[in-house]
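A.,

Following up on our hallway conversation. Structure tokens first:
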């Protein structure tokens, strides 16, 4: 009986360790920030290459043409799927936007707004659905929907979409959501899972099966 009492009074280190680990996971680590920086600089530069066909599609076919090409948010979506922490979407979007602008994107400073908007929309998706592994597919899907609505707000005025009939504008938004989901959402998830299988993401929860 005495041994049982001692065992019950003994601190449960496993419980305290788990709580500490959870607390640590709330903030971005140096590794998280480095991943966001490297990945989104790369995708920001790629966005500059994709911007030229997007400008052509927009000039030729308006919002519907522009909606067909939406690979621009893969960077923030990919990193957020891997890291799963508050702030990672916003950081990724800002880095991507600046890299996009500085690498010569014809849209100039608008790239920063689009990147920030993509990040903030992702944070909203996180806030609604949470950060658990089993919800990440839905988080990225919701982020893709919100990203189109958010980025279209500025594009609506900058590129003359304000003169587009409402029916056509809605059609373009729906096409954009589908394109963003396939090109920036599903592709980001596929890349993240592929990288996890190689063992390169062992420092992150996705690489540990958590």
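Then the amino acids I'd put at each of the 210 positions:
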């Amino acid at each position: 009986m005495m041994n049982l009492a001692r065992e019950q009074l003994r601190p449960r280190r496993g419980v305290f360790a788990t709580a500490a680990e959870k607390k640590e996971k709330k903030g971005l680590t140096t590794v998280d920030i480095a991943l966001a920086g490297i990945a989104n600089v790369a995708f920001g530069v790629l966005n500059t290459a994709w911007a030229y066909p997007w400008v052509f599609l927009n000039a030729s076919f308006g919002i519907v043409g522009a909606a067909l090409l939406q690979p621009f948010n893969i960077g923030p979506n990919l990193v957020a799927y891997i890291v799963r922490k508050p702030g990672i979407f916003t950081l990724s979007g800002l880095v991507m936007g600046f890299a996009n602008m500085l690498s010569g994107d014809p849209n100039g400073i608008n790239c920063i707004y689009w990147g920030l908007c993509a990040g903030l929309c992702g944070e909203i998706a996180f806030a609604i659905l949470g950060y658990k592994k089993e919800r990440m597919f839905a988080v990225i899907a919701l982020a893709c929907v919100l990203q189109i609505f958010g980025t279209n707000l500025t594009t609506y005025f900058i590129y003359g979409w304000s003169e587009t009939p409402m029916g056509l504008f809605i059609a373009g938004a729906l096409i954009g959501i589908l394109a963003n989901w396939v090109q920036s959402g599903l592709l980001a998830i596929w890349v993240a899972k592929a990288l996890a299988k190689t063992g390169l993401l062992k420092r992150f929860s996705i690489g540990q099966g958590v």
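The helical segments are 2-9, 13-25, 30-67, 74-83, 88-102, 110-129, 136-158, 166-198. Curious whether your intuition agrees with the design.

B.
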